[in-house]
Amino acid sequence: MRTGLSEDLIARVLGAAPKYTISELEEKFPPRNLPDGAMVTRFAPSPTGYMHLGGLYQALIDSHLAAQSGGVFMLRIEDTDTKREVADAVKLIVDSLYKFGIGYNSDEKYGPYYQSQRRDIYHSVAAELLRDGRAYPCFLTADDLEQIRSQQSAAGFATGVYGEFARDRDITAEDIVRHLDNGEVPTIRLYSTGDPVRRIFCKDAVRGSIGFPENNEDIVLIKSNDGLPTYHFAHLCDDHFMRTTHVIRGEEWLPSLPLHTQLFRMMGWQPPMYIHTSTIDKIDEETGKQRKLSKRKDPESNVAFFLRDGWPTDAVLDYLGNIAASGYEEAKLKGMVKSFAEYEMKLKKIPMSGALFDMKKLEWWAKEYISAMTVSDLVKSVVTWANEYGDEKQKMQVANQDYLTAVLAIERDNPRRIRKDFITWKQTLGIEEFFFDELFVPNTEYKYNADVLRAFLENFDIADDKDTWWNKIVEIAQKFGVKNGDVAMDLRVALSGRTNTPDLYSIMQVMGGPRVIERIKALL
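Predicted structure:
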């Protein structure tokens, strides 16, 4: 281990004297007062684009495990990559969690929750590492690094700053001063003592103990361009001082597990329990093979897709919950739980292989969810969606809520035969467009029996009960020598423009006598 830097030199290297000692940080962020077994989890997205479905999946697992154990779920914004940060990305993340009903804790005691606002914490920990020689200032330029990579590639070596390629690994205090006097700003690098020949064993709560080669790379801890930490160093400091007990993240982070374990052990801190979940995959329609959800190919990879199209957010969460916990669907079908929020999730049952996202299966979950809603809740959901996301015609459809309620109440009074054709709020309004004169499109291809329609109008009375109404249809069928269903189909298409609709009598009752008469006369 190299000799550490003096306090004056540490202040010059970091740009200012550290604000805290490690002891002061431990006192500032004490262990949480929670019951035994309580999990402290965090969803830690980077504001570099839209909210990915995989992020929602991650946040659901995080929040669920914390809630069922009596713990704490945090939202932490990892905004240290200033080059890739996208405007309004944080708002998208916060709004998405809110609209899907995923709440998080914002206890100021363990904040702030933006990494860009925690610079003093990172610099204070970095100062401790510089003080005892576990880190060092590195003045390698971008050109230097490119030259090193070229040499390593040509020789068939792994790329990175390590061993003989770490030029400043044992830099003297005099050389540090000389560089600083020249106006150069260093990165702060880890002084790694790892050896790839040796193995480090790391534990994953689902996968068990996994052996990796030790990390020997002197990774950057603090960047030179903005003084902010890299992901790895911020992860170390934040998860320790926020007292995170469980880190749930995608399996793409599994290769970084030995490095993170090394950093925690180096500091003498207890690492959190890691759980690496499988990626969200789908079956490619062209190849028939399983692949990751693609930002470019799959609109459903963007959480906003589900909000814009009006998918029931609870149904989406239920489906994602079933992907994360395979026993949930069976428990719900047996009536053991009403929603995923009530289901006890077992860590060992979180899938390790690619979790398939199937839009057809999601449609089933949505249909089941909507079919169980009360009419008033269904109307409220449709109206709320239309007013926020709908176009002018959809806003028109929800303007008269009494009429809309009557429309959506059709075939919902018999719990044993309740209709299950509604999937999204957008699609629901699309199904019901024919109830609105402004949106009704007559079917000009269907061959109507004009005599049947005229006969129906002669004896039509909106006040008839269903039996009386049906008897009149039977009489018309007998009169013209056709089937009862043929008469009903002529009326169905005349009123809706479609050959498949819910109960015809109910449709007429909701439309009202004048509208029924007007539409049939228009055809005649």
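Summary: The CA atoms of residues 148 and 165 lie 7 Å apart.
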